[in-house]
Amino acid sequence: MARPLRIQYPGAFYHVIARGNEGTQIFETEGDRKRFLSYLESAHERYGALFHAYCLMGTHYHLLLETPHANLSRICHFINGAYTTYFNLRKERSGHLFQGRYQAILVEKDAYAQELSRYIHLNPLRAGLVSDPLDYAWSSYRCYIGTVTKPPWLVTDVILDYFTGEAKPQEQYRISVMSATHMQGEGPLEQVVRSTFLGSKQFIETIKEQWIDAANTDIRNVPALRDREKRMTLEEIKNAVRSAAGIASPFYKTLCLYMSQQYGGYSLKDIGDYYGMNAPAVSQQNRRFKNRIIQDHDARRVLGQVTEAVKCHMLRPDPDERR
Fold it and tell me: Are residues 170 and 244 part of one domain?
């Protein structure tokens, strides 16, 4: 069986799952779990990893992970390697602790981040360990609802920013999670495409065009993209949109927002801060534009022009590489 693709680019968002070899317990004690969390902190400090949610089960773990520097492999190799060394020394054992490669699903962040965080936080309930996720100490749920202090390496505002009602976002998130405890039907992981993607058809096509086709890369050799860490700044994206579409274009501001997310890989919060908007407003405008380009020929034409301008900038050789 072919190994799942490893697509890596700045700002990519992943659901990472790693299981114990042959179903073995990888977390046996409170000390084990604390040690593992310390490696998440180290991965944040060393490699810039941003963790949006986590859950440590007995035989496996879940992470919702963002990689600003396109270095998923380094991050996961460090975490699993460091923890295996610790666990083997404590148990006076040797050999593999984890079952083969970790699973890393590339996620369309704004469409699935909230749903995936709920899925991750409800793992202990599905396993019959607790009846309320608040009672499980080894997930990020308590940080989300504000009953414990959030560590600096855990990012909660990206998901909490989706909740804009009158109640506090933490309370709205708690209600959202608890409302899913009785939901029937498929979970988000049932929608994964080829063990690699969780997102819309447009998201998958964008990734293919930008990070595979644009690099003239054989899709079977996608790990060769692992060292590609450059991305345009928000200012460069805005200038590319202005150059291709013109500031007078009715799509100008919308294209700036859309390209910053789709091709820049920036979070809704970063984009909103740059353009003086809140994250939900950016998300709403981008969703509307996605729907518009399906039916509006002019919108598709302008988007094509802007996309080519952005891709040409991204693929432009670095001056240092020409020497």
Answer: no
Nearest-angstrom CA–CA distance, 280 and 282: 5
- Tell whether 254 is covered by a domain: yes
Structurally, the chain folds into a number of domains equal to: 2
- Residue 86's DSSP bridge partners are none
Q: Which residue has the higher pLDDT, 23 or 219?
A: 23
- The identity of residue 189, as a single letter, is L
Establish if 226 belongs to a structural domain. no
Lowest-confidence segment of 37-46, 133-142, 301-310 by average pLDDT: 301-310
H-run or E-run covering 177: helix 169-179
Residue where the block lists tokens 């899709």: 219
Do 317 and 248 lie in one domain? The reply is: yes
Which of 262, 115, 128, 129 is closest to 190 using CA atoms? 115
How many CB atoms are located within 10 Å of the residue 264 CB?
Answer: 22
Q: Tokens 């975490």 sit at which residue?
A: 79
Question: Chain-centre distance of CA 260, in angstroms?
Answer: 16
| Structural domain boundaries, residue 262 | 231-322
One domain, residues 178 and 285: no
CA distances (Å), origin 61, targets 102, 113, 255:
10, 17, 38
Residue finishing a domain among 191, 211, 244: 191
Q: In this predicted structure, which of 97-106, 118-127, 192-201, 221-230 has the lowest mean pLDDT?
A: 221-230
Is-above-0.85 flag for pTM?
no
List pLDDT tens digits, range 214-245. Answer: 444 433 333 323 333 456 788 988 988 888 88
Q: Which tokens in the block code for residue 203? A: 């998201």
Q: Say whether both 160 and 252 belong to one domain.
A: no
Identify the CATH number of the domain in which residue 256 sits.
Answer: 1.10.1750
Contact call for residues 109 and 286 (beta carbons, < 8 A): no
